[in-house]
Amino acid sequence: MNTELAVLDMAGTTVADDGLVEQSFTAAIATAGVSESDDRYPAMLDHVRRTMGQSKITVFRALLGDEAAAQRANTEFRRHYEGLVAAGHCAPVPGAEEAIRLLRASGTKVALTTGFASGTQQALLDALGWQDLADLALAPGPGVRGRPFPDLVLTAVLRLEVTDLRRVAVAGDTPSDILTGLRSGAAVSAGVLTGAAGRDALLAAGATHVLDSVASLPTLLGVPS
Q1: What span, in angstroms and rounded, lies between the C-alpha atoms of 9 and 4?
Q2: Are residues 70 and 100 in the same domain?
Q3: N or C: which end of the chain has fewer CB within 10 A?
Q4: Single GO cellular component annotation (predicted)?
């Protein structure tokens, strides 16, 4: 496969999560008066786990049913998560950076995508020193819906002037990542086992491949090491 573009998720796929999302969710939901001892908390946390990869403001809207409360929770999520990143609780998935460099050296463009706000994505890129690692970094925002809509992939295709969706590969650790890839028409929508979902959940979502890590993606795409 002559791959023109690889669209890669960040937390859980190229960046190790290590529970940062759940910690930040717990801090965020407290703004709505829900503590870990609250009867509502387990169901809310389960929803967060099931919707990993999706835009965080969308998740808070679904949980709280009130725009003002959702915005407060989203702001606190960002503050807490970015604080953890600034404190050094951020590391790449082993082999991820090398895989991205190998893909780009072979002529494949790389876009890093996320369900976080653009400011949070930038905090991750800054902490990792990845500002110039990929060709493009994209987050949900005006005119670009988050996963599982196909917008992030299609926006990357347009901005990077890709000629054929059949030459696009998508990789992520959640069913939402898989659905985004499939809905965009990408030839490869691969799941990775370094994040939120297991093999069965990724295959149930329709993953074309399941990899132990994004580090294996260049080999899957036939990129020589």
Answers
A1: 17
A2: no
A3: C
A4: cytosol
Whole-number Å distance between alpha carbons of 171 and 168: 10
**The residue to which tokens 């801090």 are assigned:** 27
- Containing 9, the helix (H) or strand (E) segment is strand 5-9
For the segment 90-103, what is each residue's pLDDT rounded down to a tens digit? 999 999 999 999 99
Longest dimension (CA), the chain: 53
- Residue linked to tokens 């995508």: 113
Q: Do 32 and 82 belong to one domain?
A: yes
Q: Which domain holds residue 37?
A: 20-86
Please give the Cα distance from 138 to 141 (Å, whole number): 9
d(CA 20, CA 3): 32
d(CA 185, CA 167): 10
Q: What sign results for the dihedral spanned by CA atoms 219, 112, 202, 78? A: positive
pLDDT in tens, 163-174: 999 999 999 999
Grouping H, G, I as helix, E, B as strand and the rest as coil, residue 222 is coil
Helices (H), 87-117: 96-105
What predicted TM-score, i.e. pTM, was given to this entire model? 0.89
Backbone phi, psi, residue 101, to 5°:
-65, -40
